[in-house]
Amino acid sequence: MPDSPADEKRQRPAPRRREREAGGRRSNRFLVSYNDDESEIVKAAADRDNQALASWVGRAAMDVAEEIVVPTPVNAKAVVGELIEARKQLKRVGTNYNQIAKVMNSDGEVPDEQMAAVHRALVTAIQRLDSATLQLMRERKERG
Predict the structure, then answer these.
(1) pTM for the full model?
(2) Residue 84, SS3?
(3) What is the pLDDT of residues 114-132, one digit of tens each?
């Protein structure tokens, strides 16, 4: 026999409320308005985090206000992805440099082509990082 909708509601845990603050009762209230599409997005996010809607909105607002979370526009995600890739590349180059230093410290020789390859990788990674950083700075300047 299929479960009834009432059974499904009983199985789902109740939405969590924000924890009580040491500073006392929250007596300041704000009216937040959303259009239908925005409301559905916010409700889905609160459901996903198993929180009451007002609790989710309050926690999200506090996280942004306290700079725990920094809002990132959707178009900046590509720039952030580029920064992550550049960081990975710089880490790889750093590993190569360490390997070269180890060889050189043990009186070994490092072929010129290996040094040139590491140098090219370093320059490329730095250029990518510079470009992505400048783009991110331009976007932040436009917002702020």
Answers:
(1) 0.44
(2) helix
(3) 888 888 888 888 888 888 8
